[in-house]
Specification:
about 280 residues; mainly alpha
Length: about 280
């Protein structure tokens, strides 16, 4: 049975319900026909504000979500899935352990979130350093040419026209008959574009490595101010709102219980901004 509750919500519970909310929005782009699953999760989240769920119910719900995500990620073209698809699984596993071992929940969440952030950022930089197309600047220039980089700049009409024209060139090449050339060329927007984007690519690598270094410092205010700048910069650079929403939850998990409420509110607000952008079709997973 359910018991009416009136108590403070802890970090484990907050992260659990935010994770469930994320999965409802996330699932909309993965298995739209299964509307009843999203409805079930939505009802569960709504009820959580009024009733006390037994620990087993929450854990079973999380196990079901992780199992579904594992099936989707590992069975259906796992080599095409982004890093965030795997992060969904590992965050779910972290929350399952935190809900099973309630007394150690905060410690479980903080330590696992810490190592997930290190792995994500360090190997993100490591992978770039070992990618010939990234290190040559070709990949970043391709992203800029088709509007995948600095997408906030689409509000400027000349840039928007440049992106659309390049997207048509790339689409025509993709559907054209295969040729011996095997590549497509698009015009540069401004002088020295290739060099500027090349150095920006190196700047991204340095930021990811700096993120790892900042994780190790003890000054909580400096650490989370850097995380805030990093998250907003990435949002303005790339609309990877699925990945960013998960990273914001992992950063939130790093907050001490008595840290400044501004940081708590920022991470929650940033998470909901990302979720809203996904729902409005302005971002992607």
């Amino acid at each position: 049975m359910f018991i009416l509750k009136n108590k403070t919500v802890d970090k484990t519970q907050i992260l659990t319900w935010l994770y469930l909310l994320f999965f409802i929005i996330y699932s909309n782009g993965i298995f739209k026909p299964f509307w009843h699953l999203k409805l079930l999760l939505l009802v569960a989240i709504c009820l959580s504000f009024f009733v006390e769920f037994f620990k087993k119910q929450v854990v079973i719900l999380l196990i079901g979500i992780v199992s579904i995500q594992m099936l989707i990620t590992f069975y259906f073209k796992y080599y095409l899935d982004g890093n965030h698809c795997f992060v969904v699984i590992f965050v779910g596993l972290m929350l399952i352990l935190a809900n099973i071992f309630k007394e150690q929940g905060d410690t479980i969440i903080k330590k696992n979130a810490f190592w997930m952030l290190i792995i994500i950022m360090f190997f993100g930089a490591f992978q770039k350093l070992h990618s010939p197309t990234y290190m040559s600047g070709d990949f970043m220039n391709y992203l800029f040419a088709n509007g995948g980089l600095f997408s906030i700049s689409e509000v400027y009409s000349p840039l928007k026209s440049y992106y659309y024209a390049n997207q048509e060139i790339i689409a025509s090449f993709a559907y054209a008959k295969p040729s011996a050339d095997g590549f497509v060329s698009v015009p540069y927007l401004f002088e020295n574009q290739k060099n500027i984007i090349f150095y920006f690519g190196w700047f991204v690598i340095l930021l990811e490595l700096l993120f790892v270094a900042v994780l190790l410092i003890k000054n909580e205010k400096m650490k989370h101010l850097f995380f805030i700048i990093f998250l907003f910069s990435l949002l303005l650079t790339r609309n990877e709102t699925g990945f960013l929403s998960l990273v914001s939850l992992l950063c939130f998990a790093q907050l001490p219980q008595k840290e400044n409420k501004f940081f708590h509110l920022f991470y929650l607000a940033f998470f909901f901004i990302c979720i809203l952008l996904i729902h409005l079709g302005k971002g992607f997973f």
